[in-house]
Amino acid sequence: MQTYRYPGRSSVRRPRTLLAAGLVAGLLALSGCGASDSASDASSGDSKRAIGAAEQGAADAASGKAEQGAGGAPSQKKKSDALPSGIHVIRTATLSVEVTNVPKAAAVARSVAESSGGLVASEETERVDDTHDMSHLVLRVPQGEYDAVLKELAGTGKLLSRTSSAKDVTDQVVDVESRIATQRASVARVRKLMEQAGKLSDVVTLEGELSSRQATLESLLAQQASLKDRTSLATVTLDLSEPETVVKDGDDDPGFLDALGGGWHAFVTMLLWLAMAAGAAAPFLAALAALVLLWRLLRRRLPGRGKSRTAGAAGSSPAPPAS
C-alpha cells in the first residue's frame, strides 16, 4: 500500500513550531533580564546604602574632627590640666623663690592666685636682721590652673627649690559617698519606725538610735566636704626671700685709708684698755694715798716726843775733860 504525503500541511506546521519556540525563548530572555535587573537593582541599592553609611560615618568623623579642631587648643589644655571624670586627686606644692623685693613679689602672687579663681589662705611677712624681708604664703588654686600658677610663681624670681605631690583619693571619695547613702537610708528607716511606734519606751529607744545615726551621717558629710575642698582646690605654699649677701668691691687689697683706720682703731682700743686699768687700780691708789696722808698727820701732831728724844741723846753723851 502506497502512502501519500501532503507537503502543504508539513510546511505550515514547521513555521508554527519555530514561532512557538521563538516566543518561549523570548519570554525566557525577558524573565532573565528582569531577574538580572532586579538583582542588579538590589545590589545597587545595597551598595548605595553601604556607600551612604560610609559617607555618613566619614561625615560624622569629619564633624568630630572639626569640633575638636575648632576647640583644639582649649580641649587639649583641659585634658592636660584637668583630671578625668571620676578621678579625685589632692595636689600640693611648695616653692622657694629668691626675689629682689618681697612685698612686690607677694602682691604678684596674690594677683596670680585670685586671677586663676583661687584665694590666699594665709600670709606672713617679717623682716630679718633689719636687712631683708621674708614672706610665707599659702595659696589655694583650682586644679585646672595648678600647672599654670606654678609656672607663673616660679617666674617671679630665682627658683631655689620646688616640691610637689599628688595623692589619689578616689577610693576614699567613693567609699564616703556610699556610706552616706547607706546612712541616709538608715536614718529614714528609723524615722519611719518612730512614726509607727506606739509605746513610749520604743519611741525613746528609737530617738537615741536616730541621734546616733544622724551624728554618724553628719561626720560623713563633713568628711565629704573636706575631700571636695581638697580635691577641687590645690594647695601651693610659697616662700619668698631676698638675697642676704652684699656685693663687695673688686679691689680687696688694703690701702692707706685701711691702714689709718686700723691704726686709729688700735689706738682707741689701747686708750680704752688703759682707762679700764686705771679704773681698776683707782681704789687701791686711793687707799694708799689715804694711808700716807694719815701718817703725815700723825707725825706732825707728835713734835715734842721727837725733841725729847734728841735732848736725851745729847745729855747722855760724856762731858769733855777739863783742861
TrEMBL record:
Residues 34-68 have a biased composition (Low complexity). Residues 88-296 form the DUF4349 domain. Keywords: Membrane, Signal, Transmembrane, Transmembrane helix. PROSITE patterns: PROKAR_LIPOPROTEIN. The chain crosses the membrane at residues 270-298. Coiled coil: none annotated. InterPro entries: DUF4349. Residues 1-35 form the signal peptide. Pfam families: DUF4349 (PF14257). This is DUF4349 domain-containing protein. It comes from the Bacteria. Residues 34-83 are annotated as: Disordered. The keyword Membrane applies. It comes from Streptomyces gelaticus. The keyword Translocase does not apply.
